[in-house]
């Protein structure tokens, strides 16, 4: 979505989408000390966006403090490992590795034949290597419940048609 003027106002707006996938990047042009033009767009939040070194230093220090704090130490213990990135790419347009992985495990644990979830349940990818409670909670921050129902074929079709 591009920057647009809200009808009937002098206000401009851009929606950065949900869940920090994009950030607003407005462009203001000035001529002779006055605003001459307004523009902008969205910048995708991905690895191509370089981090600000000063902010990285601050975040690293805060992270080290959390790891050292006995109150939060359990969040940084190993709870598993991933051979590949459990990606969220594609989750709003179809399927994503993280969603498929979690739903396959949950479906099997529940003894169900199918499993559905909202795409917004999965917020961040899980990197290859050690998985910590912190990474797990960042990827899936909500305390979702697993509900098991018996549905007819027609009800399943209605559910799939709705999604």
Automatic annotation (TrEMBL):
Residues 79-161 form the 5'-Nucleotidase C-terminal domain. InterPro entries: 5'-Nucleotdase_C, 5'-Nucleotdase_C_sf. One of its GO terms (biological process) is nucleotide catabolic process. It comes from the Bacteria. GO terms for molecular function: hydrolase activity. This is 5'-Nucleotidase C-terminal domain-containing protein.
């Amino acid at each position: 979505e591009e920057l647009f003027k809200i009808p009937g106002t002098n206000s401009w707006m851009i929606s950065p989408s949900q869940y920090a996938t994009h950030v607003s990047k407005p462009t203001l042009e000035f001529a002779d000390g006055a605003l001459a033009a307004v523009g902008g767009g969205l910048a995708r939040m991905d690895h191509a966006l370089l981090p600000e070194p000063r902010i990285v230093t601050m975040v690293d220090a805060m992270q080290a403090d959390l790891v050292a704090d006995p109150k939060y130490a359990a969040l940084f213990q190993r709870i598993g490992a991933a051979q590949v990135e459990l990606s969220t790419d594609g989750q709003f347009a179809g399927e994503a590795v993280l969603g498929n992985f979690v739903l396959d495990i949950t479906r099997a644990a529940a003894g169900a034949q199918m499993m559905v979830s909202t795409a917004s349940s999965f917020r961040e990818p899980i990197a290859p290597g050690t998985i910590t409670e912190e990474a797990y909670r960042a990827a899936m921050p909500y305390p979702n419940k697993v509900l098991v129902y018996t549905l007819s074929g027609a009800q399943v079709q209605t559910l799939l048609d709705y999604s």
